[in-house]
Predict the 3D structure of the following.
Amino acid sequence: MSKPGVCPYRLIYCRGELGSKGKDIAYEHRLVAARMLGRELRRDEYIHHVNGDKNDNRPENIIVCSCKEHMELHARYCPDCGKKFRGNSSKPCSTCVHKRDHSPVPCPLCGGTPVRRGGICLHCSFMAAERVLRTRQILGVSQHDLAERAGILASGLCRYERKIKPISLNIYRRLLNALFPVYSP
């Protein structure tokens, strides 16, 4: 994976070679494709790397295609309905997400107040934050160490403990696992 703002393609010295178009340097994948075809590439021809590695410029890993064909090769499809869309292919499209059941369910901790799926009620949230604070103080674990172990920001943990922000069930579980690690033999 390349760094943001840095071109992932390799430039090489190529004065006078096929595919260089009279320049001293060119992108290696375009030179390899020009050699494969035995001619200069047109501006409307794109290079697709079959295995996704932009530094793997072997001829068997390169396909010359049009813009439309290249976009089709990179298209993503919704796992629920199969519709083509932009975004992460492992998640459903916006249409399918809105069709899902979002009806409230009882709080998983107290069984009372209805909450969104995967959430906990405000009362349980603040009680959970208080339990985490007391346990952390009893065990002598610093706020920074606990946050690091749980994989959250220390400022976020501070907001939970001060009851400024409600804690989610997922974060609560992560904090408990960080306080009481489960070791498997």
Q: What stands out?
A: Residues 105-179 form a domain with the 434 Repressor (Amino-terminal Domain) fold (CATH 1.10.260.40). Strands lie at 11-13, 25-27, 46-49, 62-65, 76-77, 84-85, 105-106, 114-115. The mean pLDDT is 79. Residues 147 and 154 are 5 Å apart (CA to CA).
